[in-house]
Amino acid sequence: MFASLFAVLAPVFIVAGIGYAWARKGLDYPTDFIARVVMAVGTPSLVLSTLSRTELNPDAFTSMAVACLLCTLGMALAALLVCRASGMHWRVLLPAFMFPNTGNMGLPISLYAFGEHGLALAVAFFLTLSIVQFTIGMAISGTAASLKALLRNPIVISLAGAMPIIFLDFELPRWLANTADLLGGMTIPLMLLTLGVSLASIRLRHVGSGLLLGGLRIGLGAAMGWAVGAALGMDTLERAVLVVQSAMPVAVFNYLMAVRANREPEQVANLVMCSTVLSFAWLPVVLAWWM
């Protein structure tokens, strides 16, 4: 069991650790450029590549999308209760609880733990959450959100392109499938390197509250994923992916949005860092339960 868990988590921690060490040494890393490449090219290619290679039936995709929406709504309600108890502003805590790191961490872990089919299910969760984050999430955080910007988002465009593959059994031309495989292959390593670089730039303050709220985000996320999966009658693999994706730490993207909106970015950075550190101890427990 330990060897299996190590095989799953080691690539994630090692690559993210390389990014962290790279940034701490002061070496140049064009974060903005890499993030744009991953967002505009890598992630859409990964979506097309994964869904074209994996037999993910429409029912499974729809079920995961619905489960994602229910988990997001449940975490929003939980965040409002925590805000009421802690006195934190709801615009700060709500996005942090609703939008976990299902991309940089969730996709690699789902791939290494559950294989290509698990990655396809994780992609369905990630796509659904991304649409919510780029609309409702941006409005909550206080940054501008528009239908035009959503329709021009590369991840949303890739979702539109994936629909015929999932629901109409459409096959990509071989040249396009090979191109998507090639470009999609760079995405997960770059995501993990960028995660490490981003964490290196965050400075911790108020560690106690960060650990408490970060732990709540992870624990409640796992419980929400399990409850929603049970309520929807998901099979073992689907529920495992749902729990893992729901239990991810706070996404770095929430920090970027807080900076843009000038909405207590240091507090959000604290949540990102503390929840990510806690996830290093929590994820082996979650994976050991399902593997």
From TrEMBL:
Entry's Gene Ontology BP terms: transmembrane transport
Pfam family, any one: Mem_trans
A GO cellular component annotation in the UniProt record: membrane
Main location: membrane
Segments forming a coiled coil: none
Keyword tRNA processing assigned: no
Residues that span the membrane, as ranges: 64-87, 150-170, 182-202, 214-234, 240-259, 271-290
Keywords, comma-separated and alphabetical: Cell membrane, Membrane, Transmembrane, Transmembrane helix, Transport
Protein name per Swiss-Prot or TrEMBL: AEC family transporter
Protein species of origin: Pseudomonas putida
Lineage, uppermost ranks: Bacteria, Pseudomonadati, Pseudomonadota, Gammaproteobacteria, Pseudomonadales
